[in-house]
Amino acid sequence: xxxxxxxxxxxxxxxxxxxxxxxxxxxxxxxxxxxxxxxxxxxxxxxxxxxxxxxxxxxxxxxxxxxxxxxxxxxxxxxxxxxxxxxxxxxxxxxxxxxxxxxxxxxxxxxxxxxxxxxxxxxxxxxxxxxxxxxxxxxxxxxxxxxxxxxxxxxxxxxxxxxxxxxxxxxxxxxxxxxxxxxxxxxxxxxxxxxxxxxxxxxxxxxxxxxxxxxxxxxxxxxxxxxxxxxxxxxxxxxxxxxxxxxxxxxxxxxxxxxxxxxxxxxxxxxxxxxxxxxxxxxxxxxxxxxxxxxxxxxxxxxxxxxxxxxxxxxxxxxxxxxxxxxxxxxxxxxxxxxxxxxxxxxxxxxxxxxxxxxxxxxxxxxxxxxxxxxxxxxxxxxxxxxxxxxxxxxx
Length: 396
Ligand SMILES: *Cc1c(COP(=O)(O)O)cnc(C)c1O
Prior knowledge:
Shape: globular
Number of helices: 13
Order of helices and strands: HHEHEHEHEEEHEEEHHHHEEHEEHH
Strand order of the largest sheet: 1-9-8-7-4-2-3
Mean pLDDT: 97
CATH topology of the largest domain: Aspartate Aminotransferase, domain 2
Largest sheet: 7 strands, mixed
Structural class: alpha/beta
Helix content: 40-55%
Strand content: 5-15%
Bound molecules: pyridoxal-5'-phosphate
CATH superfamily of the largest domain: Type I PLP-dependent aspartate aminotransferase-like (Major domain)
Number of strands: 13
Distance between the termini: 41 Å
Low-confidence stretches: none
């Protein structure tokens, strides 16, 4: 990228300038009191963003994928049974990781574009009276398909069966952008990374761990070393890491959590909802469909848009990059070539969203799709001016 165009990929997100600067620190002794003043507020901030009273927060110099691995290897043993649904590339990759660690995954395959099969999970959990299932894995927001799932519903299914399984939630593309309620949903481990809702560069795996999951650590025998929570906990008690931390990124995380909390989480979520509404209005004005099969599943952080049968959606991404220096997300896995994605998470403004929609129109027109230039932009403009007027009224 040679220009200052925003990116429209669903992570890494556009970085607010203040966060970019917060990551740019001179070298610091990572065992000094000054480091403790970065570490502990960063952990406390994440805990508030997760809405948890009792979770312990651990941050590894890694990415979200390592957060998945930390969750399963610290709490489970080879041969343990886990329940997971596959409804997109990210849930698929987490399942694959579990299998490579020797876990026995009961996979429920779901059409990509649908949400987690809560009713089916409820039946499976109720039938598992011997409590062989040790953990339930849930991807809150399937970034590949733009589908948000009912995490509270999965918790209800566990409770209805009085099932003791641990509950692990991938919130990589939802935490800090869409409502996420660690305590109310009875989450045992929540996973995210630095480069999505926290608007930072990639490089941190961030997890929240419930007391119940902490208690499972001693008995778990999956191999882990770098990601061992016990070492990290001991490190934090001495205001340090078991190895060298990414001090600059942690300073960014501290500021990112402050930014989100200062704006107010509800305001952050509402902002994402209204930006997403504008993008969806544009998609509908284009006469196109979202990959998510029903409105209750529409993600407020990413929209995966189905292109006409026979058209390779990947061309939209490559043409946008080559001709306009703008990045959209490509389709992944089962929906490769069938969808392109507009990421709209992080600190995107109405103006930026409109520029992405306008660019998508130029690209699709260039490629011969039946798009009226300005149609999606006009629909999004209407959405944004109305919601901006409502916000202005409320502020008076
Ligand atoms: C991005 C993403 C991941 C992977 O995170 P990395 O930081 O790329 O390792 C996992 N799950 C979801 C839902 C994601 O969006």
